[in-house]
Amino acid sequence: MSKLISPKDPQSRASLRKILGFPVRSLTLYRAALTHPSFRNENARITQDLEDFDRLEFLGDSILNEVICQKLFEKFPEADEGMLSKLRSILVSQKILSRIAQALELQHVLRISRNLRQNFKDFLKAKLLTDALEALFAAIYFDRGHDKIEAFILKHFEKYFDPKLLFRLDPNPKSTLQEMTLKKWQKLPEYTHAFSDKGVKTTVSAGGRRKASALHKIKRESEVLAARALIRRLRKEFKKVKSRGRRRA
């Protein structure tokens, strides 16, 4: 892969069209969305007339949530408010947004300061690209309208509207499991640990005999894996119970 950030201005109409899949009308909007405040602070004279990045990011975040919520409402008619909220939180998480931003190769057109460029570590890279993607949503909205940005978002989020994939990507399965057990049994899940040369084996239990275990060298990771495994088991169980109830009705 080529350098993550070019010191030169990479935001030509041709490069943006390649990323977006359609021609841009107002180049200034996209320059603003893809120029981080750190770069603007370093280059105030050449960026002073650009729209504010943070304002675009704020609007883009709202546009994203509106499109995602509407799609979830349509796609999962039987999901309750709690489930819809959980699915939305996963879909708009930094984990998925940064994946989409990297797939679009925004790292090649995002202008950031020299200092940030030198410290473009994974955690910072994810945050910067996520912010830029949200700002880009606002730029598309102003440049091409609501229908265009809705289509753009749904195109790039399409594969993530799969509940099985979403729950595998859940950035906080321990929190999800806690919500499930409190709702179902009014109790928190219980974690136990067994340490060995192979690592830490975590067993998490909930609702009586329902258990799942996982092994990892790091204790926290073993807890995450165990929680994710128990979530899968509980969802299958709840689905079967719900299905039996429908047949009886």
End-to-end CA span: 57 Å
Radius of gyration of CA atoms, rounded to a whole number: 22 Å
CATH architecture descriptor name of the largest domain: Orthogonal Bundle
Structural class: mainly alpha
Number of domains: 2
Rounded mean pLDDT is 87
Report the helical percentage. 55-70%
* Count of discrete alpha- or pi-helical segments spanning 4 or more residues: 13
Descriptive keywords:
single chain; 249 residues; mainly alpha; Ribonuclease iii, N-terminal Endonuclease Domain, Chain A; Double Stranded RNA Binding Domain; 2 domains; 3-stranded antiparallel β-sheet; 63% helix; 9% strand
Reconstruct the topology from this structure:
Blueprint: H1 13-20, H2 27-33, H3 37-42, H4 44-47, H5 53-75, H6 81-91, H7 94-103, H8 114-118, H9 122-144, H10 146-157, H11 163-168, H12 173-185, E1 190-196, E2 199-206, E3 210-216, H13 219-248
Antiparallel strand pairs: 1-2, 2-3
Please, could you describe this protein's structure?
The chain is mainly α and 249 residues long. It folds into two domains: 13-162, Orthogonal Bundle (Ribonuclease iii, N-terminal Endonuclease Domain, Chain A); 173-248, Double Stranded RNA Binding Domain. Helices cover 63% and strands 9% of the residues. The chain is built from 13 helices and three strands; from the N terminus they run ααααααααααααβββα. It has helices at 13-20, 27-33, 37-42, 44-47, 53-75, 81-91, 94-103, 114-118, 122-144, 146-157, 163-168, 173-185, 219-248; strands at 190-196, 199-206, 210-216. The chain has a three-stranded antiparallel beta sheet, with helices on one face. Strand 2 and strand 3 (210-216) form a beta hairpin. Helix 2 (27-33) packs antiparallel against helix 9, helix 9 packs antiparallel against helix 10 (146-157) and helix 12 crosses helix 13. The protein starts with 12 loop residues before the first helix and ends with a helix.
